[in-house]
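Section 5: illustrative case.
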């Protein structure tokens, strides 16, 4: 009986620990940036990636630490405090979903921050206007 509760609990936690996503508008803006040659890996100017996907995944080998890294860093997503706590409570089985989830979420956070940089940061707005791109 305890084994079944553990499996059910792990399944529920895996479902609840959903990945960070982009809105439809953010996906469109990201596609617009990509069509102009601007990506997370190749930006213009001074923008830097706030999260390292490899580090986030590796840190989640420890219970929830990768999620805490994603919650606290530049561009942090505070929902990762909850994900980290759930991964901590369900460790060691949480490694199965926690490692890939943290790496994927780090990429989404980077993409969101790239969009925000060019849309809201004064330096980013200047750089994107010089590239002839309008994110509105």
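Designed sequence:
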């Amino acid at each position: 009986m305890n084994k079944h509760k553990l499996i059910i609990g792990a399944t529920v936690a895996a479902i609840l620990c959903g990945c960070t996503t982009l809105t439809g508008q953010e996906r469109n803006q990201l596609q617009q940036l990509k069509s102009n040659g601007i990506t997370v890996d190749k930006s213009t100017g001074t923008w830097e990636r706030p999260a390292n996907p490899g580090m986030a995944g590796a840190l989640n080998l420890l219970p929830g630490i990768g999620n805490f890294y994603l919650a606290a860093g530049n561009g942090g997503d505070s929902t990762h405090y909850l994900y980290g706590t759930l991964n901590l409570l369900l460790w060691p089985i949480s490694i199965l979903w926690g490692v890939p989830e943290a790496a994927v979420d780090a990429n989404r956070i980077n993409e969101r921050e790239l969009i925000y940089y060019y849309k809201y940061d004064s330096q980013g707005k200047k750089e994107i206007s010089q590239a002839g791109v309008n994110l509105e």
